Amino acid sequence: MQSIGQAAKELLERIQVIRSTTIHSPMNNSNEYEKRQDSSKKTNPDCNKCQDENGYIINENGMQLWKICECVPAKKIRNMMKSSQITDGFRQLTFENFETKGKHSQIEYSFLMATVYANQFETIEKNRHNSFALVGQVGSGKTHLLCAISNYLLSKGVQVIYFPFVEGVNNLKNNFDELEEKTDRLKKARVLFIDDLFKGRDKPTAWQIETMFSIVNYRYLNHLPILLTSEKNFGMLCDIDEALGSRLFEMTRGNRMELVGKQLNFRMTDFE
Ligand SMILES: Nc1ncnc2c1ncn2[C@@H]1O[C@H](COP(=O)(O)OP(=O)(O)OP(=O)(O)O)[C@@H](O)[C@H]1O
Ligand SMILES: [Mg+2]
Ligand SMILES: [Zn+2]
Question: Which residues are near ligand 1 (CB < 6 Å)?
Fold first, then answer.
């Protein structure tokens, strides 16, 4: 007779097989099975293999199993891109269309830093200092390069949420009832891209500083990466709020650069 240990082991192995190939067995739930059969009659599906059902039934060892379709990873990336809040225009900003030829060495260097960070992200992410920042000169390509990093990471299936400071804080303020849910999303995203932190002629308000601090501090404590641009350098950020500025400074150790000099303003390149 088979021992209980042996039987349990065999059962566990069977569960493993089912788990690795199925979401659930449709045979165990006939309603669900019928529903899937019906909805598979969809016309013009994006995926002909699964009729946009994300999976299909296969026969394995006499059992009918639900197999996740090969189209699912690409679909996940598309959804992730949609929910990243990166606009269509910013999705076009890549490393390929960033010019370095004949540009100032600071531009070349910031490009190099950004490509290395994007390429080695999976390793860097595990470090204490896993964030990236370009600060300083207006128009020097800070947003372009950080969009290039974000678009690259998204294409690899890494979740990035884009948070443009000015629009972002206004949006949080105008939807007070959703504040907690929205800030929670910014706190917990795998990567958060804060663009143009503390932009504006006026000093940031106490509420803006508090809100940004709670997001940054959560990410600081949980070792979650931030991509940062700001016209203000780290000294200025610390003058606004030392607790916030110094956390960002620490998080970006080895991966930050200040761009200095009006000649770096790409918007003024054909200006005589
Ligand atoms: N080296 C470059 N190659 C190609 N396009 C560039 C380069 N640098 C900047 N640009 C383009 O110039 C414009 C300004 O760049 P970007 O917005 O990235 O600058 P920024 O440093 O973020 O400026 P700001 O401080 O005003 O936000 C964008 O359209 C960007 O795509
Ligand atoms: Mg910018
Ligand atoms: Zn499919």
Answer: 93, 98-99, 103, 107, 138-144, 196, 229, 231, 266-267
